[in-house]
User: What shape does this take?
Amino acid sequence: MLLFRSGRSTYWGWLPWFLSIVLSVLIAAPQVSGQSKGRKKKGLASATPSGTPGEQSLTNIPLPIGHEAKGLVLPDFDGDGRLRGRFEAGTAHRIDEEHVGFQHLRITTYTPESQPDLRIDMHTSVLDLKTRILSSQERTMIQRSDFNIAGDSVQFDTNSKTGRLIGNVKMVITDKSHLTATPGPKE
Assistant: This one.
């Protein structure tokens, strides 16, 4: 038994049903995207400096043990609340209570005047949250406006912004003007 006698009736019979589904999806979509944006905002709010200086730092990364986060961006503030570094990781995972592993990590450090200083690129690395030393056993590139340096492994102290490159180290100085001091007028 046919419910509709012509193809035209069949088309118009399904149209209201199809439109009601499309409208319900469109109405629900802003609510769902609004919820995900709200979660993102909560995550970003915890990564900004709060009332007490030094409260947000690399020692309290909001990532549960065994979980992975993609596209993680972590600011690093000093005791006075000034931005001293920015960590951008392709992926980050909490190894245990004291260690966080990173993949495709790019670190930008800043001077006390909030100007970019160093850029460090690491393929894989592990951050010790107690000592704040970042270690990588893979080739690492460190760049500044006047030099580039790379080595097979690195240990980088995020507090003092000092590091140790080991194995097949290569440095290229791109601006030597401040290395060669011009003598002042002789008296």
The first helix runs from residue 7 to 46.
